[in-house]
Amino acid sequence: MYNLVLLAARPPEWTHEQFIDWWRGDHAELTYRLPGLRAWRHTEIDQALEPRSEGWDGISVLSFDSPQDLKKALASQEWADAIAQVGDMKGRRIAVMGHEAQLFGG
């Protein structure tokens, strides 16, 4: 799998609950439509391990078969629609991409 990983924090005027509801609701409706999307995992962050890790609300991992498939998704109208919905929300995010390796499957 090739993943797009997004770590996000809500806009200052939103509550954590509002942000998670939006992310898993209205925003998810657009994200599900991304061409080539194989899996999507979302983690609601409810606590930080240490002070330097505070201030984040959730993590999304969007999985594709290849870097090329992710590139096509990022060039799609569906991606443009999802970005337009975010607009000038003023939250923070970190977005990174890379190959997944399962190290433990328990």
Automatic annotation (TrEMBL):
The record, for Gene3D superfamilies, names:
3.30.70.100
Q: For the EthD domain, which residue ranges apply?
A: 12-84
Coiled-coil intervals:
none
The cross-references to InterPro entries, in alphabetical order and at most eight, read: Dimeric_a/b-barrel, EthD_dom
The family database entries (Pfam families) matched by this protein are listed as: EthD (PF07110)
Q: Could you state a single Gene Ontology molecular function term?
A: oxidoreductase activity
UniProt-recorded name of the protein: Ethyl tert-butyl ether degradation protein EthD
